[in-house]
Design brief:
- This is TetR/AcrR family transcriptional regulator.
- The chain has 11 helices and no strands.
- The chain is mainly alpha-helical and 203 residues long.
- The protein has 2 domains: 54 residues, Arc Repressor Mutant, subunit A, CATH 1.10.10.60; 127 residues, Tetracycline Repressor, domain 2, CATH 1.10.357.
C-alpha cells in the first residue's frame, strides 16, 4: 500500500508518490474491473483519501485512463519488447505470445490483461475509451506488420498472408490468451498449444 513520502508539515499536506499510487490503482482496476473498482476500493488500494486522489488524478475516469497508460508502458509493453529483441521471426512470435501469457498468469498480479479483459468491457458505453483502445490496437498492428514486412522483403516469409493479416492474427491470439487466463486457465494451459498458434501466424 502506498505511503505518504513526507511527514505533514504545519499548514501543508504531506507529499505523495504519484507513481506508487498509480501502480496501486492500476492493480485495483485490473483485479476488479472499472465498475468493480469503486472509489472506496480505490482509496483503500492506494492508501490515500478521496480528495487527495481527485487532486492528483482527477475523477475516476481520468484515473482509469492514467492506469491504462501506465499498464501499456509497463506490463503491457513487455510482449512487444520481446518481439523486437528476438533475432529471427519464429523466435519473435514465440516470445511475443510467451511473454504475454506470463504477464497474464503472474502469481503476484491479477490474471488476464487490464486492456483486453477490463477496459474492453467498458469501451462500448464509453466512446473516448473505445477510441483509445482502437488506437492502441492500430499501433500494435502497425508495429508487428513492419517486422513481418521486413521478413517478407528478405525472403523469410511468403507474401501471403499479408504482413498486416499476420499482425492482426498475432494480436488476436494475444488477447485470446488473456481471456483464457482471466477465465482461470493456468500458465501451462494457456501455453499448451503455443506452437500451433506460432505456426498459424507464420503459415
Amino acid at each position: 500500500m502506498p505511503k505518504q513520502t513526507e511527514k505533514r508539515a504545519r499548514g501543508r499536506p504531506a507529499s505523495i508518490d504519484k507513481t506508487e499510487i498509480l501502480e496501486a490503482a492500476t492493480q485495483a482496476f485490473w483485479r476488479l474491473g472499472y465498475d468493480g473498482a469503486s472509489l472506496g476500493e480505490l482509496t483503500k488500494a492506494t492508501g490515500v483519501s478521496r480528495p487527495t486522489l481527485y487532486a492528483a488524478f482527477g475523477d475516476k475516469d481520468a484515473l482509469f485512463d492514467a492506469a491504462l497508460d501506465h499498464y501499456a508502458k509497463t506490463t503491457g509493453a513487455a510482449p512487444a519488447h520481446a518481439f523486437a529483441e528476438a533475432t529471427d521471426i519464429r523466435a519473435a512470435v514465440t516470445a511475443f505470445l510467451t511473454v504475454s501469457a506470463e504477464g497474464n498468469t503472474k502469481i503476484d498480479a491479477p490474471s488476464g490483461c487490464l486492456i483486453a479483459c477490463c477496459a474492453a468491457l467498458t469501451a462500448e458505453t464509453t466512446p473516448l475509451l473505445k477510441t483509445k483502445l482502437q488506437k492502441q490496437t492500430q499501433e500494435l498492428t502497425a508495429f508487428l506488420s513492419a517486422r513481418f514486412a521486413r521478413e517478407v522483403a528478405r525472403g523469410a516469409l511468403s507474401e501471403r498472408p499479408t504482413p498486416e493479416a499476420r499482425a492482426v492474427l498475432l494480436g488476436d491470439f494475444m488477447r485470446a490468451q488473456a481471456v483464457r487466463a482471466r477465465s482461470g486457465a493456468s500458465r501451462a494451459e494457456v501455453l499448451s498449444e503455443l506452437s500451433t498458434r506460432v505456426e498459424a501466424v507464420l503459415a
